[in-house]
Each structure stands twice: as structure tokens, then as C-alpha cells.
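Hi, here's the filled form for the chain we discussed.

Project: internal
Contact: R.S.
Residues: 145
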Amino acid sequence: GAAATKDDAVADTVACTALTKRGGGRKTAISTKSATRGEKKARKTRATVAKKNATRSRPLNSRDTKLRRNKNARALPVYSLPATEFGKGWVAEGYARQTGAYKGHIDKYWISPSNRKFRSIVGVRRFLAALKKYNGDEEKAYAMK
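And the returned structure, exactly as it came back:
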């Protein structure tokens, strides 16, 4: 009698609760009802993600941001000045960005007398050093910049 009721109570408790780990590895009992709601929510989330992925022709990746970029937005030329510190024929140009988080930022470029474009003064200096090393051969110097 008493042993059977104790076993029945244990069975009822096990049937109505699910054990889960919470903070510090301690096990606590939660009701089956809330666990079922959580499971349903997890299943629904997984189904939604799977559905979105199924409709997409290919997975979302970094190239997709390039596809969304406005192709008509061009950088506006701001200035074009002689860059005499590098020698005769060098030009420094500035272009203002038209879109994005850095809209209005001016990108600076240095153009060599042979029309090669450099994005930094460091790149120009490397090119000039390589030019001396290869006795004025611009093809080799540009490849080594």
C-alpha cells in the first residue's frame, strides 16, 4: 500500500517534470508544459530558417552586399594637384565618397607619370625604391611595389 503510493508519486513527478541544467551545473525541475512551449518555439524557429534558406537561390554571403550596392554612385573628384614631392609628372587626386557609412570621406590617390594609381604614400615610396632597384623598369617596379 504505502510503497505503491510512493512509487506512483515518483512516477507522476518524473512524468510531469523534465530535468534541465541551470547555472553552475545544478539540476532543477521544470514543468513539461514550459519545456513543450520551448521545444515548439525552437522547432518553429528552425522551420522558419529552413524555409528562408529554401527560397534563397544560394546562401547569403559577403558577395551579396556588393550586389546591393548602388552601381550609379560614383566618387566625385574633389581635387587634382601636382605632387611635386615625388618628382615631375606625379599628381595627387581626391575623391569624395557618395554613399555608405563614410559618405563624404575623401579618398586620396597618387598617380605616377606613367598613369599608375597608388592608394598610399607608402605605396608610392615602395614603387620609387623598386624603380631605383630595377634601373627605371616600371613594369618590374610596379610588380614589386
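Let me know if anything looks off before we file it.
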